[in-house]
Amino acid sequence: MRGRIEVVRGDLTKQTDVDAIVNAANPELKPGGGVCGAIHEAAGPALAAECAAIMRGEQAYGHPPELVRGDTRITAGYGLPCSAVIHAVGPVWEQQDEEASDELLDRTYSNVITHARWIEAARVAAPAISCGIYGYPLARAAEVAMAAVERHDLELFRFVAMQDDVYEAFWSALPLRQKLRPANLVEYGGLLLGGREG
Fold first, then answer.
1. What is the pLDDT of residues 136-180, one digit of tens each?
2. Strand 20-24, strand 123-126: pairing
């Protein structure tokens, strides 16, 4: 990846300097818990209404309305500070073998990048897809995510972690040349000195 990769501790819904954020979505695109619930709450009811329209086949943009693991869809950002939300349906860790899980997670991040480029979103912020109730092991998910994101050329791909263990896993997987970028050094140093949230 020619652009930057950042790992920050903070609130995904308050990333004011990105064009799009990624929702760790369910296949029905319904408001849920965790990151998904927080995004829907911040965006307001219009987001759920557009998601429902997508599932009815009204706004599929050439895609079938049904979503399978690895798929992504795009909506407006509504009440969020970004202009768009890329809804990504990651794999459930225990529903297939480890290699198939890795392939699906890689496909999920690759589709996020593809859709970001399609809508000309040069700066994207994302959560740790599949690491919540979907049960993906953190360290393994971080390695897959970094490998997928490094292949592409957005200006910025930022991983936003709300929990310390997620932050540490993704920081550990961050390539060295990205760790040495000033923003990442400041972020990591700030956390070591008492906690800085992005």
1. 999 999 999 999 998 878 999 999 999 999 999 999 999 888 888
2. parallel
